[in-house]
User: Fold this.
Amino acid sequence: MASVAGAFLKVLLLLPAQTWSPVVAGNPRDCDAPLVFALPQSSFSSSSELSSSHGPGFARLNRRDGAGGWTPFVSNKYQWLQIDLGERMEVTAVATQGGYGSSDWVTSYLLMFSDSGRNWKQYRQEESIWGFPGNTNADSVVHYRLQPPFEARFLRFLPLAWNPKGRIGMRIEVYGCAYRSEVAYFDGQSALLYRFDKKSIKPIRDVISLKFKAMQSSGILLHREGQHGTHITLELIKGKLVFFLNSGNANLAPTNAHVNLTLGSLLDDQHWHSVLIQRLDAEASFTVDKHTHHFHTKGGSSYLDLNFEISFGGIPTPGRSRKSFHGCLENLYYNGVDIIELAKTHKPQIRIMGNVSFSCSQPQTVPVTFLSSSSFLALTSNSGDDKMFVTFQFRTWNRAGRLLSGELRRGAESFVLFLQDGKLKLSLFQLGQSSRNVTAGAGLNDGQWHSVSLSAKWGHMSVAVDDDTAIQPLMAALIDSGDTYYFGGCPDNSSGSGCKGPLQGFQGCLRLISIGDTAVDPISVQQGALGRFSDLQIDSCGITDRCLPSYCEHGGECSQSWDTFSCDCLGTGYTGETCHSSLYEQSCEAYKHKGNPSGLYYIDADGSGPLGPFLVYCNMTADAAWTVVRHSGPDAVTVRGAASFVYAAGAGQLRAAVGPAERCEQRLALRCGTARLPDARDGTPLSWWVGRTNETHTYWGGSLPDAQKCTCGLEGNCIDSQYYCNCDAGRNEWTSDTIVLSQKEHLPVTQVVMTDTGRPHSEAAYSLGPLLCQGDKSFWNSASFNTETSYLHFPTFHGELTADVSFFFKTTVSSGVFMENLGITDFIRIELRAPTDVTFSFDVGNGPCEVTVQSPTPFNDNRWHHLRAERNIKGASLQVDQLPQKIQPAPVNGHVRLQLNSQLFIGGTATRQRGFLGCIRSLRLNGMAVDLEERATMTPGVEPGCAGHCSSYGHLCRNGGRCREKRRGMACDCAFSAYDGPFCSDEISAYFETGSSVTYNFQEHHILSENSSALASSLHRDVTLTREMITLSFRTTRTPSLLLYVSSFYEEYLSIILANNGSFQIRYKLDRHQDPDAFNFDFKNMADGHLHQVKISREEAVVMVEVNQSAKKQVILSSGTEFNAVKSLILGKFLEPPGADPDTRRAAARGFTGCLSAVRFGRAAPLKAALRPGGPARVTVRGHVVAASRCAAGAGSGSPARELAPRLAGGAGRSGPTDEGEPLRNADRRDSAVIGGVIAVVIFILLCITAIAIRIYQQRKLRKENESKISKTEEC
Assistant:
């Protein structure tokens, strides 16, 4: 019936110190009257006084009576000044002074309040500040307005720090007004039943307000039932308030409630807590103290279907097992009706069930707070007893800590009772023996009160926690209990067994301590009449739920100890102290420029914002990064009526992803078959689609919104001119519309509707493609700051509890401020402080804090650097590029709110000094992109955009690719690389079947004679090489093999071959009049079916060879240093290379069978030219050369790689070989030449037979020749 729409926390805080006038600052109720100045002397009390003239009665503000203020006998942290206001009052402000004309004043203090003078509660600022800043001299007055105010009769001021050259000295005033209240006490077995007028049972607005003080941790506060099991219930469960709203289910179990909201924690602290429940039609809110849940009740009418009565304090129906409330309710109102007043005056609408009284009894329990791990309470026992019995209750968040220790037999046997992993553990120690342990309970660090009893008698010792008991036998039957029991830690001079080891003392609260049959009075301890203690807060339980509100964002799980909290971010997609920072990039564009290839990625379009990450496919192309968002429906669906499409991302996520895109589109292929309609001939469309915002659109691809026409309607070529879409024509035949929708504000498509498909024999087939979005404008949004006094200004940056800033910057200057935002005293600033130092500084009221990242290399290198700064209540962090992140923890119990009020300055400061010179790009504040370019267009000294991206991203272009600047970003030009893809990293591979080849011609052929050397030199001087770089990768099992051959018009050549034994060999002939230089590299047998990578570089006569990126060898040429008139490069088989040595001829005749990839000779990439569309006409392919995805992932060696790849443009991927070599660019690959293909196959077979015969003849002839410079043993 309802779903929770969201939760909004309204945290109220204490205003900073200021000079304040009660009259001027009065609230509308004028609740700011001074409450102390007219009180009698008896209303003042204190822990001690230095003399009768320094007593608490002299502590009135601005009075000079006595010694001029209160001063205790000893100045330490256990002193206090107490005020009794006579009755509960509303307190709105406090003010303090030091002792008149003295050096005695308090610099910080705690403020406690209570209804009864017992069980004090601390007033906290900002949920974490422990102390109020006090005075800096004896006479000035420091006022604080309390937001929110509180109600109390008793107040205590506890000095924390004072003038080190004086003593504690205080004069005080309290401001407020009278507080009216009606109170009812419920004893756990009583209730009030309110019956109201039937005429008013269905109000449009319902409001229930009350305050409660609980004596027990669980109980029903209110309950109202309706028909068919409908009910609303407000119940206290283990100190938390739970609101149940159930529709149509009589079972009151929480798991069956349709709305189940939990607010508050530790509400069983015997202090007042406020509740407000409001409903306006179907909108409702639930508030406990300062924390609010808003929710929507979808079934509003069911909510109103309730009975005519509502009960408070319990459920009056007999047989109900739910526990009734034990405690007090105050100012209980239902729709403006004072329920308690009706009950006190015994009005007929109210029925009192059980014992309900109209005054609130005050608790007599005195809790004790152990503030630190060194806190202890030492209590004496009846020494010499033959038994031991100790009981107490405790509550804590800590998983570990020593609770109690003592002796069983003097110096011989001792015990320690402690928490470990949330369990209660008892360890017994005896001299010369190992410890013995028993464990009881689990999960005891849940903040709830737990009862413990420890007893020893008749040879055994037992420990019980709640309902769990464990027993441990003692070594000796006789017990002689020691003199002292230590609760918590141990004194510094203690040497007992329980005080040894790393175990820390207990932090938390204890109460109801009993030793033997005697209850311990903590007030006597406080007054020094009983025991000893250190670092305790007596008569107060100072436990705080640091997970309420939870500062863990994005679903992070909060856990806490006494001092702090932590967030478990596992599975959230976020990281950091508060799960604030996203693990993922904002877009595919960002992933691309980190060098990531195409693939599935999570993107987080709003970064640290509320929208979560979602999965997309990033298609990285040479010019752009495309974001592909698929829908969950099938690619094609036949429907009658409407087809809906659901995406993995929500509407907010899609909006955040589509907004910054350069452009978006979505293709819709629509085929429809329907009968002609006699009506709707006015051109009204019979089909439409619904976009992201649930708006209906009648326009189709290529048309403008609201045109109500398909593309054929705009072009005037629809199959029926009366209609504007083919599918609206109503033909008795299948028609189609292919649509490209590109109005990104409306995308993606969520529904397609065909209103006519309800007719018999009418149907439609939809094929909706994914949402495609190109680029990310925010990633390249930038501004150039040209003067030190220029800046961009934006509205105030709001990051009270959590703030993060990220951007790219580049500069050539040594310093400058990137960003600044100021408050009255708070500020935030990020700056380049020195060429190697970036500093993030801020102040939230605890004094300036700085975090600095230092780099081993300067930041002012005119390259882009990425900066991310974050500040939250746990601390601050700063990271630049991939340098180690620097973290600065926040001070314990310090101020946490960043309060700014000036404009946000980017690239400069409010003083126009230390401005930044350079570029800032992709600025994001709390995950939201800031449009720098728009503001820069109207700001002098600042220009939109920033050129020069290749200096930073050029390294992404690999394998010889060149970085090319774009207006928004850069692109890799792979024209002179043997690789392809967005970063020139996609391997271009091909499988060569036996007899196939690729020839790359460097220049056109010219017939040369022996006497035309001058002409040849003139024609080919541009391709004379003194150096070259060669790379290739291969995989084969065939030998001998020709890997690469480069020829010259002068019969010079280079050949790279595998010999018969698989050894790698190189031949260089750089002078046709000399024999070639032949080099054999004994790396290993490289015809082993594995992929091998070869890199050869020549610098004149020096040749460096590297194999598989590890084995290297250098050789020196003797045949020359210039490679003249380079003609062509050949991969695979060719016959009779002119002037070649016998081994090269044998390898050339055999060719190459296997996989070749990444072939490059200088700037020539022959495989790429052959296999990529639009390759140069100088490439010729003979035989069967098949494109492969990559050699390392191909088929097994020696067999063709059968990768499924798209056919190349122009037919480069055809399956049949050709007889005559011709450039692929000019080849005719059409399938219509069937007969020609058959003839070609026959000719190919005949040529193969002829080639085999020639090959046999050549091999016999070559065996007789002995011209090779390599021994025959190397060929075996």
Summary: The CA atoms of residues 489 and 505 lie 4 Å apart. The chain has a mean pLDDT of 82. The radius of gyration is 43 Å.
